[in-house]
């Protein structure tokens, strides 16, 4: 009886061990399945991003079309994007170099075209003459102008153009003679005209200044000495601003600005890879 | 010349159409196998070449693109229409095929379009945009299948 019981006990112990082993194997297998699943999830997440499917050179070709700000912002997308950008910075620097070369070539072309144009010496002389006349305006002329109560339309028009020249925010349509008087009340405006930067005259100012052509020199000179002087000054400024030389000069200035920007970007990118 | 796609579909190409493919237009071989390009993509590439059959000089796209410009401002209407009808993932594959064949104007068009889409977006938006649901290469598809089989076992 005891022997039989002993045998049963041994068998049960053996079965228990086998069951435990089986359970352990099951756990191990379960663990490996979990690992495989995690790997699949990780893989599918990676493959879902186009950045991982495309070589950096291809993405660089896309990034070349972006301005420098968007180009650098692209680094924030992921580690891979950051690596792509950094890896491709030398190509971007080369591209900027190419742009600078092209811009320099453009400047050369404009300079040649500019020298081919007729000399603007006569315009400069006219401008200097107009400035001289402005200097020669005496206080009485200016006081007379300031105190005019019922000015002729031509005088109002000329003075409004002067105000537009002095202040780009001056809205001619909304202004009256009283508003103009406030500006010409301070005689410093004549000094401001002397140091007027023609380059800063913007397109909307230019459009309004062009209305001076509706007035003839005779009409202006009939009103007063000051009106005639201002009229001549405005006309010369307009001629300079519209001259081909000036347009070329502006174009060159803009290109030089672009070159400066490109050089700044180039230095910045070079510092990034150093 | 014949183009054979990854899925073994043959496309017969006229010499006139081939003019756009700078890398292969002067080769002697009559068959070009594009082992990494699917027929759907190859068809689009050929469609682009056919579209420009009579265009001898396609203007270059300015780099970088000005912020206020969209794709219709910088390329011809037919090009803009062609590219806007494609999905992002298709465009990426088209770039790769065009690179292989040397169709520079198509590369520029595709890259410019993607650049316009990326421009001004924050990193999260770009991430969303670059998401893709289909694996591109056979190698990746095979890796996917292997993983599935391994799990099923």
UniProtKB/TrEMBL annotation, chain A:
GO molecular function, one term: dynein intermediate chain binding
Entry's Gene Ontology BP terms: microtubule-based movement
F-box domain sequence ranges: 57-85
Regions annotated as coiled coil: 2-29
Pfam families for the chain: F-box, MT
Keywords, sorted A to Z: Coiled coil
Residue ranges occupied by any Dynein heavy chain coiled coil stalk domain in the UniProt entry: 129-221
InterPro entries: DHC, Dynein_HC_stalk, F-box_dom
Annotated Gene Ontology cellular component terms: dynein complex
Annotated protein name in UniProt: F-box domain-containing protein
Organism of this sequence: Paramecium sonneborni
Taxon lineage: Eukaryota, Sar, Alveolata, Ciliophora, Intramacronucleata
TrEMBL record, chain B:
Residue ranges annotated for the SKP1 component dimerisation domain, each copy included: 105-142
Entry protein name: SKP1-like protein
Domain SKP1 component POZ residues, every copy: 2-54
Organism: Paramecium sonneborni
Pfam family, one: Skp1_POZ
InterPro entries linked to this entry: SKP1, SKP1-like, Skp1_comp_dimer, Skp1_comp_POZ
GO annotation, biological process: ubiquitin-dependent protein catabolic process
Start and end residues of each stretch annotated as Disordered: 133-153
Domain of life: Eukaryota
Comp. bias (Basic and acidic residues): 142-153
PANTHER family: SKP1
